[in-house]
Amino acid sequence: MNNDNPFIIDGRTGAQVSGQSRVASTLLSKVLLITSLGFLVTSFGVYLAPVAFPAGSTLICFIAVFGLVFGVRATRKTPALSLSLFLLLALLFGFIIAPEINMYLHANRSDIVFNAAVTTAVGMAVLGIGAQIFTFDYRKVANYAFATLLALVIVGVLGMFFHFVSPTFYSWATLGIFSVLIVVDFMRIRNGGDGATGVELALSIYLDGLNVFLALLQIFGGGNRRR
Question: Domains of the chain: which residue ranges?
Answer without folding.
Answer: 11-226
